[in-house]
Amino acid sequence: MNDLFDDALPAARAGGAPAGTAPLAERMRPRRFDQVIGQSHLLGPGKPLRIAFESRHPHSMILWGPPGVGKTTIARLMADAFGLEFIAISAVLGGVKDIRDAIEQAQATLARSGRATVVFVDEVHRFNKAQQDAFLPHVESGLFVFVGATTENPSFEVIGALLSRASVYVLEPLTGEELGELLERARRDFLNEVTIEAGAREMLIELADGDARRLLNALEVAADAAKGTKGAEGSAAAIDVPFLRATLPATLRRFDKGGENFYDQISALHKSVRGSDPDAALYWMVRMLDGGADPLYIARRAIRMATEDVGLADPRALSLALDAAQTYERLGSPEGELALAQAIVYLAAAPKSNAVYVAFGQVRDFVARDGTRPVPLHLRNAPTRLMKELGYGRGYRYAHDEADAFAAGETYLPPGVQHEPWYRPTDRGLEAKIAQRLDELRRQNETNRKGDA
């Protein structure tokens, strides 16, 4: 077999399309591993996938990562590197018949050459449990080297039996530097008659948001349009920022720093929720989805809003945000987006409190400035006789044994800590009742301590 990283590896299959008519992203698909841009944590020297491929023993795997980061490329390169047949199945478009056809084709290959077949299942999380189960006996028998690609957490979306027979590798979005390298390679190798102005280059990289396929597709559209407008004297076709805005108006909504920036929209969404405006919050959420934002990113922001801006004024907000995130992970788009919309509206309508957020920051600052104070003896754990003899736990009052399950007058901070109350509940929502409760407990503490004095 050829060296896994030399030039002799055959070109990756392009699905039968002639090289001249294949999309730029397909023509740019690497033919050997050292042409892969990104994923150095897996493919670099001494890294897991590099070691696995150099060991000459192909194995089943799950490739988990966002779109356009190389999952299909790695699967195809592995098949080429080991000289194995490659069968691709789309779980979005395929079904039981495709699985059955793959089994028959792999069995024929085994009978003919004695070799296994790489079966690549794109979007494997879209297959149900029964469909995923169908692969198991053939993975175990060695008929298949199973490679599943997924954008969803395989812990939730791939059956345990299949997970236990495959290694999971997490692929990362490409960095801006890696996307810049890919863009320059595409221009040099396929679009050398096109010039790209620096601002347009940065705009395309930002548009891609870590997705190589998105970058190359946008670049191809812009380059084709630029070629049609180049000067009569054969001057190079030029792509600049105004040209991109005119050529890719819809896809630039989210990322155009000269217009509606992604992070500005995030800020607008967060502030609309904080400002208790459900309509505005929904508007900005939909704008982000329309611009290509990852719904799970919105879900993560909703969880933050629940803790930072709603807090204990309505603790249900956090549960609702977490449930919405899990619902989206289960259903995907577009069904799961409704759960996110429900969470965003709830957060916007909920009573607001940042009291815990503020208190946490104040305590963290205090601890960073303060010395290392010992835990008071009465609060220490005393699992041994020696610790008990040293006074660990002595004098501790078990709150459940006292009236109202509260040990009035007891202290829990180290001696000498002087501070105003860090946590100051608001008078909104559930936190108003928490405030009343804490006021009553402070009154009992003061009464008890005065009595002791």
Low-confidence stretches: 5-18, 254-260
Largest sheet: 5 strands, parallel
Approximate shape:
globular
Strands, count? 7
Structural class: alpha/beta
Give the percentage of residues in beta strands.
Answer: 5-15%
User: N- to C-terminal separation?
Assistant: 87 Å
The share of residues in helices is: 40-55%
Q: What is the count of DSSP helices, taking H or I runs of 4+ residues?
A: 21
Order of helices and strands: HHHEHEHEHHEHHEHEHHEHHHHHHHHH
Radius of gyration (CA) equals 30 Å
Largest beta sheet: what is the strand line-up? 2-3-4-1-5
| Mean model confidence by pLDDT | 86
Description:
- This protein is of the alpha/beta class.
- The protein has helices at 24-27, 40-43, 48-54, 71-82, 96-113, 129-133, 136-141, 154-157, 160-163, 176-189, 198-208, 212-227, 241-247, 262-274, 278-290, 295-310, 316-331, 335-349, 355-369, 385-389, 430-452, and strands spanning 61-64, 85-90, 117-122, 144-150, 167-170, 194-196, 237-239.
- The strands form two sheets. The protein has a five-stranded parallel β-sheet with strand order 2-3-4-1-5, sandwiched between helices.
- Helix 5 (96-113) links the parallel strand 2 (85-90) and strand 3 (117-122).
- Helix 11 packs across helix 12 and helix 11 (198-208) packs across helix 13.
- The longest helix has 23 residues, at 430-452.
- Residues 5-18 and 254-260 have low confidence and may be disordered.
